[in-house]
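Homework help board

Subject: predicted structure for assignment chain

Our instructor gave us this sequence and asked us to write out the predicted structure in token form, then describe one feature. I got the tokens but I'm not sure how to describe them. Can anyone check?
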Amino acid sequence: MPTTLLRVLFMIVFAVTGFLLGREAYVHLISIHVASQIWLIALTVIVPVIGAVAGLFIAPVVQSLFEVELRIVESTIERLAPSEVLGGALGLIIGLVIAFLIKSVLLDSVATAGRAGGYVANVAYIVLSVFAAFLGTRFGAKQRLGGGARANLGVGSTSLPGRPPAQAKLIDTSVIVDGRVIDIVESGFLEGPLVLPRFVLRELHLIADSVDSMKRTRGRRGLEVLAKLQELTTLEIVDEDYADITGVDAKLVRLARDRGAKLVTNDYNLNRVAHVEGVVVLNINELAGAVKPAVLPGEEMHVAIVRDGKEPHQGVGYLDDGTMIVVENGRKLMGEETDVQVTSVLQTVAGRMIFAKIKAKTGVVNP
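My token output:
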């Protein structure tokens, strides 16, 4: 149901209820204490209007609670298997029955307290029925009545007979712009449906349209990466969003948690937040670090010195995988290639650094 239509319905229901309650309050409480005929006529209009205005102010609060629950239900229904649909239908019926029983036990006694009590009881019963129906549906869907394994964990996912279905993976902007995800998908290390939220796609479009040339280039590269991913694997674009949450990272974590999906990212802060929220994270930077060949002190390698280091005598080179090598007394060989021997390896948050000494031509390492 569109948000605007839902807002109008809530405002109408609560405004009418407030108006009727105000009229009842005037008739049974206020009018008997007012002697002036002018005030009686004025209050006949004023009190119901105040009740209607109060109802209009209360309506958005109830509507927001209703929309949060409705959004959760909608996102759940999109991923339901047939057995879950059956369980949800049964849960819906049970929820409505429970709401009716609560009405019979509690709300009917409120309804006997005059016409105002009847209005309150009816509104409370409507709200109670809606929430009981939604909660019953959610609980029943989790029971997966009718047997059978869940068909998929995300729209578009498939599985072979006798093989567990692949878990959906949410991808964020950093992974798309980075581009290495294409090689990982091609190698088969990242399988299953990839899920791209619409709000991430919007962020990527904003980057591609940026006035900053560097950001614009990265954004356009990201769009090319998405086009390539669509050729390589199942890429599902979902419209789920969270109006009550600000920030793409927070929305990604919430969506991954609601869908039971893994989150693919290069963002260090997003990685930490997702872990706190209990979301499984696939960090491409961590994967790259894990597959780098192990280097031990004493190993020899051939490296090109490309720039000077922090210390005056140091030279810096790089391995093919981007690992930095700091070479003692290497500055004098800048622009040349030389054989070095590893002295130590340092693992930092930014990556791995290798320290080495120039290997003497005689086979003896320089001091």
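Reply (TA_rk): Your tokens look well-formed. For the description, you could write something like this. The two ends are 76 Å apart (CA to CA). That's the kind of observation they're looking for.
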